[in-house]
Amino acid sequence: MNSRCNNSSVSLGDLRLSYSTFGNGNMHIIAFHGHGRSSKDFEFLGKIGKVISIDLFFHGESYFPLTRIEKNPLKTSEFYLLFKEILKNEQVKSYHLIAFSQGGRFALSILPDELNHLLSIQLISPDGMDNKSFYNRMSRNIWARNLFIKWERNPKKVIRYAGIADKLGLIRPKVHAFIKKFASEKQTFIRASQTWRGFRMIQADEGRLKTSLATYNGYFRIIMGKYDQVIRTKQATTFLARIDQRNTLVELACGHDFFNEENFPLLKDILKFN
Predict the structure, then answer these.
(1) Virtual CA dihedral for 156, 160, 165, 169, nearest 10 degrees?
(2) Does any domain span residue 87?
């Protein structure tokens, strides 16, 4: 089976959404990578079918204007139009959906409208399971966003404040390490700030999710890391209870980095595309 990579993109006004395809065959797998990751994370699935792996905005060749972040952030409707154009271009009628972390936010936002086409849904430690969390509420607070814009000029301040918060017990050690990772390099922090602010309107409609999943006959799972301190299993458990999908949680003995050398075999073994 050919796993050669092809790169393409679709456009809508001032937006461009790029994607890579791996493998071939009649079975389609649509994938959304996580923040700071790459569409190539899902290249390994090209051995079992045709993978269409989408680059989030601010990643790969996807483009979202910086001038829009504050005044006109990305809307789910815009993303969905681009997404449907990709399906049209690739002649996809039914498919398996897989998403990791920040990619899970996008997957959750379009699920109710796509369930009739979905053969399976596998979300790996997905972002976006709680629109009312402190993290998400602050992204919709102009004062908090202005603070992050200010910190973009000097991310080292974020590391200093996070260190203080860690010592005071205000944040978990793993969250402290996560912040240090993204604030250690200026461009890495800037991208984290831009996506946090620019994706603030991409949200799951839990009411529609609950209603639509009630009649869904496909394979639906949320895969979490038992030791994940970035997006915790408790968040998934609470979210799944709210949408009445309590028995769909799979927990692996790992943290948030599912794609490192140690955890990747665990992930590969649990994924199903029957």
Answers:
(1) 110
(2) yes
Q: Are residues 182 and 95 in the same domain?
A: no
pTM strictly above 0.85: yes
**SS3 of 116, please?**
helix
| CA separation, residue 20 to residues 4, 11, 84, 163, 173 (Å) | 10, 15, 15, 39, 36
User: CATH no. for residue 108?
Assistant: 3.40.50.1820
Domain that holds residue 103: 6-133+202-270
Count structural domains, the chain.
Answer: 2
pLDDT in tens, 189-227: 999 999 999 999 999 999 999 999 999 999 999 999 999
Give a yes or no: residue 82 inside a domain.
yes
Say if 159 falls within a structural domain.
Answer: yes
Q: What are the pLDDT digits (tens) for 85-125?
A: 999 999 999 999 999 999 999 999 999 999 999 999 999 99
Strands 6-12, 28-32: pairing is: unpaired
Q: Which residues touch 217 (CB under 8 Å, ≥6 apart)?
A: none
Check: CB of residue 40 under 8 Å from CB of residue 73.
no
Q: Which pLDDT does position 174 carry in this prediction? A: 66
Rounded Cα–Cα distance for residues 111 and 208 (Å): 9
The model's confidence at residue 168, banded by pLDDT at 50, 70 and 90, is confident
pLDDT-above-90 percentage for the chain: 78
Mean pLDDT confidence for 263-272: 95
Query: Quick one: 176 and 129 in the same domain?
Result: no
In a domain, 252, yes or no: yes
